[in-house]
Amino acid sequence: MNSKLNKKVGVIVIKDDILTNGKWEFDDNVAACFEDMLSRSIPQYDIMRKSILDLASIRINKILQRYSDDDLSICSQPFSLLDIGCSDGLQISDFLSRYNHGHYVGIDISEPMLRKARERFEYEIKTGVVSISHMDLRKEFPREYFDIITSTLCIQFTPIEYRQEILSNVYKSLNHEGIFLMVEKVLGETSALNNMFVENYYNLKKTNGYTQNQIDRKKLSLEGVLVPCTNKWNVELLHQAGFRQVDVFWRWMNFVGYIAIK
């Protein structure tokens, strides 16, 4: 793999030049180049990430207003956040760069990703600010309550028959007025619309340096692994989970960000 120095954060970013064979999995090769993969594969990736941070911050700031500086010196974790499918921890890192206080929990099913996250948060894990755990959402869910729950391009990798239960667990695990921010790849409402979205998306990937061979092989490897729903179906799943306030906060063709308030 090629690599480059990300001068903003002072780390080496490995370029995604993976040619996938077999079914897609978040293995060591993917973990090594994950951030480059996201930046070149997810449309408006930085805008989407900042939107999640800014919307969650509205809720966090309201919570922090209840505390004086003296209170915060005693209560170091006035709010809690769960990141479902935390991968290498980049999303949690966004929040840590803005807030000194809080308790952050990241869960993922990929051990290579979890290793990267634990390396990133070695100090924060030791001090109890961050907790990173292996968890299969088909079998279990964190036994805590959270003010914010995020899930960025994660639920789409779980079998459809488990999604309602997972989203119901999200709802149950939120505190009153807690918010859930979820980003998913979606199907178009008709096959014609979906084909247009997909074609435009693949053109974007070509513009970002992926070859047709890479695109075709990744598409094949993701079949049956990444299973998107329509936008309407995702909204219905959120309503069925118990959310009454649901809306779209960001959309690019077949990528959608949802916000739901308990």
- Content of β-strand: 15-25%
The structural domain count equals 1
Relative helix content: 40-55%
- Spatial gap, N to C terminus: 44 Å
Organism: Blautia obeum
GO molecular function: methyltransferase activity
Keywords: Methyltransferase, Transferase
Protein name: Methyltransferase domain-containing protein
Key phrases:
single chain; 262 residues; alpha/beta; Rossmann fold; 8-stranded mixed sheet; two-stranded antiparallel sheet; 10 helices; 44% helix; 24% strand; disordered N terminus
Give an overview of the whole structure.
This protein has 262 residues and is of the alpha/beta class. The protein has one domain: 3-Layer(aba) Sandwich (Rossmann fold), CATH 3.40.50.150. It contains ten helices and ten strands.
Helices, strands, pairings?
Layout lengths: L2 E4 L4 E4 L13 H14 L3 H20 L4 H6 L5 E5 L5 H9 L4 E6 L2 H10 L1 H5 L3 E5 L11 E7 L7 H13 L1 E14 L3 H17 L4 H11 L6 E2 H11 L3 E8 L2 E7 L1
GO molecular function: methyltransferase activity
Protein name: Methyltransferase domain-containing protein
InterPro entries: Methyltransf_25, SAM-dependent_MTases_sf
In short:
The protein is built from ten helices and ten strands.
